């Protein structure tokens, strides 16, 4: 039985909590035993806002051992896995320390605040022999894994063009400190940049237009063109300043030689050029569920993870850093 300690109990920590509880109930060899957060006394009785709904608003944490100090949790618990859902600047140092102490680590995206830190995390995992996976959850999201399968098996030919979008209202607290979060471009847009990297490989160049709307928050709205040798036209946009009743959206449209895929409002429509269109049958489970299940099973079996490796996630961070440089130069082409 793999025993898990969860560090961070904001929105993403609760999302992971929900799925650990469910996976354990389904017979996966995992048990969440401890939760640590500097504000645990406040958070255990409060709500956490996010762009998707968690299973509960207020959580009953009486079955779990609670800590407000990481060292105390590590000293008093016998854990196999540490799950980190803390602010981005805290990822690198803590992950490396935990790996060196002998824990397997699941670390939320982005891998780190800077790619140099991401490469250090990857090297530490290699040296310690412990499993480190980064929570780039779209690599497990059914609509996006379907896209990857279509591109890889070539059932509709080569890709001609694609467009990806992600948007919401403003996040809260530390997310609006650009020095910590990296702004929308690093915290939100990185999801689609990661899918582009994962599905199509790294581009030769990027050209990015971006704007700061909220003072001090970094780039809040972004549009990037990705340049590939075969000439396909790929663009990804993100905006977390969509106010009013907008809510949250994640969409894509990919046009291939023999058809197109359109994902919007939670539905993936496949439109072959020579046959009637249809709605793809997808798993109803979220990427968070599939991600944690994959990680648990990999650790239990002692097999390396091949999805969301720290090396690949750091490659995506390098892509974002190139986009930031391009945005700083008002859309100049930046090579990778």
UniProtKB/TrEMBL annotation:
Keywords: Oxidoreductase. InterPro entries: Gfo/Idh/MocA-like_OxRdtase_N, Gfo/Idh/MocA_oxidrdct_glycsds, GFO_IDH_MocA-like_dom, NAD(P)-bd_dom_sf. Residues 145-261 form the GFO/IDH/MocA-like oxidoreductase domain. It comes from the Bacteria. Residues 2-135 form the Gfo/Idh/MocA-like oxidoreductase N-terminal domain. Gene3D superfamilies: Dihydrodipicolinate Reductase, domain 2 (3.30.360.10), NAD(P)-binding Rossmann-like Domain (3.40.50.720). SUPFAM superfamilies: Glyceraldehyde-3-phosphate dehydrogenase-like, C-terminal domain, NAD(P)-binding Rossmann-fold domains. PANTHER family: BCDNA.GH03377. This is Dehydrogenase. It comes from Paenibacillus pabuli.
